[in-house]
Amino acid sequence: MIRHIQLPTFNELTKEFSKYFKNLSESDLNLLFWEEDVHYFKRGSEIYSEGDKTRGCYFLYSGILKVFKTGTEGKAQIIKFAKSGDLIGFRSVLNQERACTSTKVVFDAVVCFIPEKSITKLIHSNSHFALELMRLTCKELDEANKFITDLSQKTVRERLAEVLIHLKNRFGIDSENSLNIILTRQELANMVGTATESVIRLLSEFRKDRLLELNGKKIILTNVKELTKLANL
Fold first, then answer.
1. Helix orientation angle between 116-125 and 26-33, rounded to the nearest 10 degrees
2. Are 58 and 89 in contact (CB under 8 A)?
3. Which structural domain range is residue 20 located in?
4. Tens digits of per-residue pLDDT, 23-74?
5. Are 81 and 160 in the same domain?
6. Torsion of Cα atoms, 158 then 164 then 166 then 168, to 10°
7. How many domains does the chain have?
8. How confident is the model at residue 107, as a pLDDT?
9. What is the pTM (predicted TM-score) of this model?
């Protein structure tokens, strides 16, 4: 369910976007955000689904989204968790194809829709922006290649350790060493590429090995050095 709250102004949007995408003029930013198609989404809301017709991409102003693909048996495989500053769905725009992933809200999010025509026009007029999108595409391809390699060469135990370190590096930890992102066991399993039961069992083993502590859904990393070693990073 979508509802409107106090949404960011045009200036706030462009200022946040400029932190991550450099070398954009005032006219460039006007082109991207002049419609100010901004919405607030609660946890569990779906931004778009795999196979949807692509009309543009999305700039995540705040919150956390999960980007995932659905297998033949309906099982979700989480590709990544997006956070503030990320541009979502741009590869489908560049490739002029239907959405190749689905996106749902993990933590309440403010998202700005950017029309395909605006993205395409800016790519043609600003080589710096085009290069930035190319780098983002290469980065996502590198992450996909790494994930495929991990699935074939690492054990589930090693992959879970790697996912925990990845979440720490991406979202950080608080003063008590608790991850700054709270996920369900199923979401962790969908990221690791295994059954939920396996993740529950391995988290219990990690706790017994004093690698982490569990407080409800919170995961507290007590021995990052050994987790990193276990993940073969």
1. 160
2. yes
3. 10-151
4. 899 999 999 888 778 999 999 999 999 999 989 999 999 999 999 988 777 7
5. no
6. -150
7. 2
8. 92
9. 0.83
